[in-house]
Amino acid sequence: MVDEIPDKIKKALEKRNERFKAYIAEGKRNYIEIPDLIPGYLYKIHARNARFGIWVPQRFGFLISRMKFRDNYLFEEIHYDASDMFGTARPLAEVERSPFDADTLNLIDHKREDDGDLYLAYPNSEDILEYLNNFEQDDPERQALLED
Length: 148
Description:
single chain; alpha+beta; five-stranded mixed beta barrel
């Protein structure tokens, strides 16, 4: 167990706490609330695993391109206001209308070719992933994972 918190971490925590206090003092949110989001639009988001996401209202979240252990796949980040436990995404700005309609953004049953098992997936998931990756491409850490 660590007995003492290093000064560098203490300073970072103090800075974060000051920003949080200022945010509360303003009495307003610094992100777009759920009723103001447009289905199928791409948003700049502040989330754990991505910087851009397509709003999918029936899932109360954003469809994102996620990188994990060099795997790149579609994932959902739930809107911050939609869940106390799982809400991690805060939309900051509308970017554009995505090329995917409401039907494309509904999960459907797919059957695996190798074993015939069913799993949930988005139709045109490769196209959606490519579209999202185009917006995430200027992240150097992410690109290093894709290129290795």
